[in-house]
Amino acid sequence: MEKESKQGFEVVKVLRSKSLVNTGKEYLELGLDGMLESDALKNIPFVSTVVGIFSMIGSVRDHMLANKLLRFFSQLSEISQEERINMVEKLNEDDKFSGRVGATIIEILDRMESQKKPELAAKCFAAFARNEISYEELRRILFALERVPSFDIEKLGGFSEVTIKESLKMDESLLLSFVNAGLGKNNGGYDGGAIVPTNLCRIFVKIGISS
To answer: What angle do CA 50, 54, 57 make, to 5 degrees?
Structure first.
């Protein structure tokens, strides 16, 4: 079993903590710099913890990752402490996460190209915590979220209900981005087929990631 990193350990501690409370989306709009400048916000336990995790915020990458973690935690604050604790325990049962849940979450968030995606990733973990999706579905949805361009995500709701006739009229590059993320597939029609949504795409939309 791999040992949890110091940063990963702190992430898990926040996930298990009662202090993970909803700060409100208006606080997130301030960004990390705004939070650091506000004495009141710096006193919010999970904000101070994230700042502590990246206490040497000297690089652009660390600064961006700290912002991503704040967004991730804020979204996850909407589920109960008990659900979050159970989620960590369930994740620890799998080889990929075992003993390094926090470090793996940091790695996942670090690879995401936009500030919006960490909140969507948190929705994935929340759905898993509520037993709405399986562990295998969680892994595949996170993979899809990482690969689909952030500017295409809002179009997934419409795509999930598209007919073959409608699909044939859609932008090719958009459809290919969905295929690349595992959210679209060719239906194998004799005339060359059409790109249609996968079951993973429908799950993606069902748990609210496309909104």
So the answer is: 125
Question: What span, in angstroms and rounded, lies between the C-alpha atoms of 61 and 65?
Answer: 6
- Kindly give the residue spans of alpha helices, DSSP state H, lying in 38-151: 39-42, 45-53, 60-76, 81-92, 101-111, 117-129, 135-147
> What are the φ and ψ backbone dihedral angles of 148, each rounded to 5 degrees?
-75, 135
pLDDT at 73: 87
Q: Assign 3-state DSSP to the chain and report helix, strand, coil percentages, each to 5.
A: 65, 5, 35
Number of DSSP helices (H) and strands (E) in the chain, helices first: 14, 2
> Of 58-72, 80-94, 119-133, which has the strongest mean pLDDT?
119-133
Look up residue 29 and give its two tokens: 């709009």
Q: What angle do CA 6, 70, 151 make, to 5 degrees?
A: 120
**Which residues, at least 6 apart from 43, have a Cβ–Cβ distance to it below 8 Å?**
none
pLDDT at 1 over 50: no
Query: The tokens of 3 are what?
Result: 């040992």
Tokens of 21: 């409370």
pLDDT for 210 = 76
User: What are φ and ψ of residue 70, in 5° steps?
Assistant: -60, -40
For range 24-44, the mean pLDDT: 62
> What is the number of other CB atoms lying within 10 angstroms of the CB of residue 179?
14
Residue 201's closest CA among 171, 156, 153?
156
